[in-house]
Amino acid sequence: MRILFVADIHGSLYFTNKALEAFYRENANYIVLLGDVLYHGARNPLPKDYNPAQVANLLNKHRDRIIAVRGNCDSEVDQMVLSFPIMSDYSTILCNERRIFLTHGHIYNKDNLPKLSSGDILFYGHTHINEVIKTDNIYVINLASITLPKENNPHSYGILDNNIFTIKNVEGNIFREIDLT
Q1: What integer is the mean pLDDT of 80-91?
Q2: Is the pTM of this model over 0.85?
Q3: CATH top-level class of 2-179
Q4: Structural contact between residues 104 and 91, judged by C-beta atoms closer than 8 angstroms
Q5: In the Cβ-directed half-sphere of 98, how many Cα atoms lie within 13 Å?
Q6: Cα dihedral angle (6, 7, 13, 19), rounded to 10 degrees?
Q7: Strand 131-135's sheet: what is its strand order?
Q8: Residues 6+ apart with CB under 8 A from 158
Q9: What is the C-alpha to C-alpha distance for residues 61 and 147, in angstroms, rounded to an integer?
Q10: C-beta of residue 150 within 8 angstroms of C-beta of residue 127
């Protein structure tokens, strides 16, 4: 199973299209949205082609393939226009006999780990900075924002294929590859 990971779209129609292009190009089965889907937030600049209504329309067409969690910029009014659940602070999926904990990062993150077991993986966004650490045999992966990356990180997404997690820029070039075994 191939899973596409996207963090912090922040209402950018341009980068939503880039994420969906990656979804098809990568032949992914599911899309994980790590929060901050529609709203840009008061601390962020307006992103390229800011259009939350059109972002919602595009993503709703893929609702049966989306697993999403709530970011600190997501609200109940966002849920009203989305056809997939987005209001949970976290979600878990099982993949390759390991638990994958999905969250935005404003509650659970590298400094506030949820209760995880050896071999589990925590994925989050929020800081817009790519970071991969391994602690107590738990991978903690922060995926930089596809729309508003910081600290010279590329506009990126991630692909989980078996036990390999690859971070790519929006053109599909590999930025970082992690063997999760």
Answers
A1: 97
A2: yes
A3: alpha beta
A4: no
A5: 19
A6: -10
A7: 90-95, 98-103, 121-124, 138-142, 131-135
A8: 4, 5, 6, 123, 141, 143, 165, 166, 167, 168
A9: 20
A10: yes
Task: State the sign of the Cα–Cα–Cα–Cα dihedral 69, 73, 77, 78.
Answer: negative
| Other CB atoms within 10 Å distance of the CB of residue 43 | 6
Instruction: At 15, list the tokens.
Output: 């980068």
**For the segment 151-173, what is each residue's pLDDT rounded down to a tens digit?**
999 999 999 999 999 999 999 99
Sequence spans of domains, the chain:
2-179
Is the separation of the CB atoms in 114 and 90 below 8 Å?
yes
Q: Count each helix (H run) and each strand (E run) in the chain, helices first.
A: 3, 11
Closest of 19, 24, 17, 18 to residue 2, by C-alpha: 24
